[in-house]
Amino acid sequence: MKVIFLDFNGIVDTYEDLDVVNMDNLNRLKKLCEITGARIVYTSSNRFSKFGRELLSEMISKGLDIIDVTPKIENKREEEIKMYLSCNAEIDNYCILDDDFDMPSMKDHLVKLPVQAPGSLGFTEEYYEKALKILGMKKKLDNGGLGYGRK
Questions:
Q1: What phi, psi does 45 have (nearest 5°)?
Q2: Sign of CA pseudo-dihedral 50, 54, 122, 104
Q3: What Rg value do the Cα atoms of the chain yield, rounded?
Q4: Which of the listed residues 95, 97, 120, 143 has the most CB atoms within 10 Å of its CB?
Q5: Spacing of C-alpha 110 from chain mean position
Q6: Residues in CB range of 143: below 8 A, 6 or more apart
Q7: Do strands 137-142 and 145-150 pair parallel, antiparallel, or not at all (unpaired)?
């Protein structure tokens, strides 16, 4: 199984609309899941708050396939993801979408977006392409059209 570990702020929202689901970013995530077969595990630091649960419900209601959340280890997202991976042996590939944490031991799986600042647009096409590659897909021309294939 492929998994996307998803932070919210800086990924799904934009700087101009903080804490609001941006439909362009959400649709890009949905497309990434459809093409790669990946499922989403929510890692955002707000995932256990009332607000975080509301965001989670909203994203699910808009069609994002979120299957779980990572355990809570205060300010140690890399450790949270490692723990999740150790408890879920069926995960054979994963991608991390985050703007907040550097994860040195997982750098080959991390799509690091810029920390939110004026002009931050979240999960743009540039980051989509990086995630696609990590999850074992690449763009290819197929019979004159744009398609996707395994690396």
A1: -65, -20
A2: positive
A3: 15
A4: 97
A5: 9
A6: none
A7: antiparallel
pLDDT level of residue 139 (50, 70, 90 thresholds):
low
Q: Left, alpha or beta for 119 (phi > 0: left; psi -120 to 50: alpha)?
A: left
Report the first-to-last Cα separation within the chain, whole angstroms. Answer: 17
The band of 17, judged by pLDDT with boundaries at 50, 70 and 90, is very high
Q: What angle do CA 120, 123, 126 make, to 5 degrees?
A: 95
Three-state helix/strand/coil letters over the chain? CEEEEECCCCCCCCCCCCCCCCHHHHHHHHHHHHHHCCEEEECCCCCCCHHHHHHHHHHHHCCCCEEEECCCCCCCHHHHHHHHHHCCCCCCEEEEEECCCCCHHHHHHEEECCCCCCCCCCCCHHHHHHHHHHCCEEEEEECCEEEEEEC
Question: Cα-flanking dihedrals φ and ψ of residue 40, to 5°?
Answer: -105, 135
Contact yes or no for 95/131 (Cβ under 8 A): yes
